Amino acid sequence: MITLKVNGVQKSFQGDPGMPLLWYLRDVLGLTGTKYGCGIALCGACTIHLDGEATRACVTPVKAAEGKAVTTIEGLATAQGLHPVQKAWIAADVPQCGYCQPGQIMQAAALLKSNPKPNDKEIDEAMAGNICRCGTYQRIRAAIAAAAKEAQ
Amino acid sequence: MSRIENFSRREFIKGMFSAGAFVLGARMLPLKVLGDHGQASAAEPVAGTAFHPSIWLGIEPDGSVILVAHRSEMGSGSRTGVPIVLADELEADWKRVRLVQAIADARYGSQNTDGSHSVRDFFEVMREAGASARMMLEQAAAQKWNAPVAECEAKLHTVVHKPSGRTLGYGELASTAAKLPVPPKENLKLKPRSAWRYIGKKTSLYDIEDITTGKAGYGMDVRVDGMLYAVVARPPVLGGTVKSFDDKEALKVPGVKMTATIDPYKLPYKFQPLGGVAVLADTTWAALQGREKLKVDWEHGAHATYNTDTYRQQMEATARQPGKVCRDIGNVDAEFAKGGKVVEALYYAPHLAHAAMEPLVATANYRDGKVVIWTGTQDPQEAQNTVASLLGIQKENVTCHVTLLGGGFGRRSKPDYVAEAALLSKKAGKPIKVVWSREDDIKFDYFHSSAAMHMKATLGANGMPTALLQRSVFPPIGSTFEAGMSYGEAFDLSFGWTDTPWNIPNIRAENGPAPAHVRIGWLRSVSNIYHAFALHSFEDELAHAAGRDPLEYILKLLGPDRIIDRKLLPADYPNMGAAYDQYPFDTGRLRHVAETAAEMAGWGKRPKTKGEGMGFAFHRSFLTYVASVVRVTVDNAGKVRIHQVDTALDAGTIVNRDTVLNQFEGAAVFGASLALMGEITATNGVIDQSNFSDYPVCRIDDAPEKVNVHIVESTAPPAGVGEPGVPPIAPAICNAIFAATGKRVRELPISKTKLT
Question: Is residue B1 part of a domain?
């Protein structure tokens, strides 16, 4: 049995320990905000935080999360309201289809945690693993910069 | 609200509205709709009801306004942009509007969210629906106050009695308004443009909060009690069949419940499933694992001879031969016979895959001869038709709910994946969710056509062409609908080919045959992609051959501002289905966007640094005029970096300003992806690519660094915005590369051409 915390709630799982976290979150727990895009860590749609680190859930087996804390897009906001990155995303009207955006937001939130004031190059480096087929990249860049400024 | 909505007519009438609610036009609905069958009968004639405003809205006694979103949201903003037109005419407060996504129902008219026509086709419909409801609310207030209706004015969710200043909210008026007759169309008073509250301004997407918090419901997120997840092993070659299969190991995977076969299609394939063997399991992961263990012996069939390298040579040879004439002005041959300076070029563009971020997925529940479907589809009515026809049931027995779409780009208007779910649900006797892996999504696409284009022009003494021959060869979309079709049709040839606006006396457009060996489908901006690439690259080539500035030369080629005479276009020129007098080809509008984009980019004013170049291209498609200037640098290793794209567009009247900006910003990235790196190839009939590793698309660090978009203010009728931003991008990039390096790119993707 594998035990882990998901969005602050203790969970235990008795199924296939090799199942990627992505499918555990989506199919077993019903947390569908974490998206499937490629299955091989190429697109970032499944980005979650594992003990605070941005992680691709599609290639992370459940067993690798044993005893760790998983945060998904559903757990990013707090009682105080939306995360600054979520607010910035709304203010900048980033999404088109929106499917990749939970992953983008989780990646951006992790970036700002480790580097509260990234420049454009640092943003590009941190976000290069997250594909947006609609092409909202310049709004993503602007939203991250705005969220960083907001946090100052 | 963007969570999965189980919306049927019956629920709409009985559930969504409480007693006393004002259901505009419910009395117009046929009785059987109000009966117990729960869904609209598609057997009703569309005419007379399909565009009637009365099926679009309802108002609750508490003042909530419920609007039906009948077109799909795939990122192009239709779900917000169409209803907001109604809200504007209704004088509704958008904050008090709730959207309900419509099921497939022919009475809405077309729900096919494709071809950039959601706003164009429904702008007036929405205005009329909103205006009739607004006028009825004013009438209801007049009745309550016993005042002349002329003294009553609807204003932001209330009706004001102008002399006394008294007000009544829409909710308070709902039950009175419900008893009034719907005003006839000729009595409708539409708001003047100056009074528009939302149209032309910015409104955030209705679903933006749900999207950013992970609550938005896509097809991938549908969960139905008792459902199994299915993944399908499909024939690697189009038309292939299962000779035999062994599922022993697959069934041993924990969670795998069963396997089931899907029959191969019958020609023409249209939107039928490809066939194969499905693995059904209690999680997606188990189903994927099970498919890994499945052993299938395939019969590959006739298309196993398809190799894109050889096929390219055949298409290029065809492009050098006379083809079917699809536009003929003047006498091109006689002009060529005169001799003079001739410029010729052959261009090639490969197959492309749609690769929307959400792989294809559909959930279906078949029971007792009826199917309920939940899926992200661009065309719910087509999903309904396809499923009904495959299962041999009436389409009234197919209910198709529409979720949000994680991208579409044309792929999600082809419901083969929906049909798989319905067939498997019938076989398994359970709700089934068919999940396509990314690999499935790329390998089993309806691919954008590859194309070869031969261009030939003769230049007069002033360096301007006197004759143009343009010949295009591509496996046509028609092959999906009619087996063996190898020539383009009026519509795909009209996309940037039979409407070349050059002001010269001799133009001939031709089309040569190319039989299809993969399923061909439309992708964002369709054949405009390769036609614009060839035509606008060639314009740049001619400018350089004449030793002139490309922008100045191309504008001269366009000639004086004029409406292109309809007689100079082919008799069957479809003009996107729009009346030519309403949406003519106006070269003045094309020139204006060109000059605007050039101004934005500082064309001709910016000092050129080493390895840097600017390129220009303009294009009319989907009735919208677009010009883009692209600035690139090419480094010593031949790597192209796109620094800036300046796009100016004239789409006539626009609805949601920010959506338009976002669409054209995204189009620059979509165009850059296909220009720089997009390529699908086949070896022995099998698609070589499988995921973002070998079918890359632009990422944040290789997309254009900055995209500036300017919307030309216009009172012309609305045109398209989802697709027309794409076509100018590839030729503008290639022209910029030429300016930077002197190397002409005649083949996409650009990565194939050595730039050092």
Answer: no
- Asked if the C-beta of B356 comes within 8 angstroms of chain A's C-beta atoms, the answer is yes
What's the mean pLDDT when you consider all of chain B?
92
My answer on whether B386 and B342 are in the same domain is: no
Domain match, B404 and B451 both: no
Q: How far is CA B81 from the centre of its chain?
A: 15
Structure tokens at B372: 């309920």
- Rounded Cα distance, A88 and A145, in Å: 9
A131 interaction partners in chain B (CB closer than 8 Å): 357, 692, 697, 699
Among chain B residues, CA nearest to A141? B700
Task: Give the one of A73, A133, A140 whose C-beta lies nearest to B700's C-beta.
Answer: A140
Range of the structural domain that residue A127 is part of: 84-151
Same-domain pairing of A88 and A71: no
Question: In whole angstroms, how far apart are CA B506 and each of B63, B503, B631?
Answer: 62, 9, 33
pTM for the model: 0.94
CB pair distance less than 8 Å for A97 and B75 = yes
d(CA B284, CA B394): 31
Chain B partners within 8 Å of A136 (Cβ): 662, 665-666
- How many separate domains does chain B show? 3
Q: A7 and A44: one domain? A: yes
Nearest CA to A100 out of A139, A56, A134, A57 is that of A134
pLDDT digits (tens, 9 = 90+) for B272-286: 999 999 999 999 999
Torsion angles phi and psi, residue A75, rounded to 5: -105, 10
Residue B677 shares a structural domain with residue B616:
yes
- pLDDT computed for residue B107 by the predictor: 85
- Put simply, the answer to whether B212 touches A86 (Cβ < 8 Å) is yes
Res B120: pLDDT: 94
Contact status of B697 with chain A (Cβ, < 8 Å): yes
- Regarding whether A94 and A63 lie in a shared domain, the answer is no
pLDDT digit string, tens, across residues B572-602: 999 999 999 999 999 999 999 999 999 999 9
Answer with the one of B435, B458, B483 that is the final residue of a domain.
B435
Where b means 16+ CB within 10 Å and e means fewer, B536-551 reads bbbbbbbbbbbebebb
Question: B363, B349 in Cβ contact below 8 A?
Answer: no
Higher pLDDT, residue B657 or B17: B657
pLDDT at residue number B607: 80
Share of chain B above pLDDT 70, in %: 93
Mutation to test the A interface, candidates B78, B211, B432, most A Cβ within 10 Å: B211
Instruction: List CB contacts (< 8 A) between B726 and chain A.
Output: none
Under an 8 A CB cutoff, do A33 and B667 touch?
A: no
Q: From B227, which residue of chain A is nearest by alpha-carbon distance? A: A27
Residues B193 and B228 in one domain: no
Q: Is the pLDDT confidence value at B180 over 50?
A: yes
DSSP H helical ranges for B92-150: 118-145
Q: What is the DSSP letter of B700?
A: T
Contacts of B284 in chain A (CB under 8 A): 23, 26-27, 36
pLDDT of amino acid B13: 30
B205: containing domain: 9-213
A90 and A57 together in one domain: no
How many whole angstroms separate alpha carbon B152 and alpha carbon B138? Answer: 6
A31 and A10: one domain?
yes
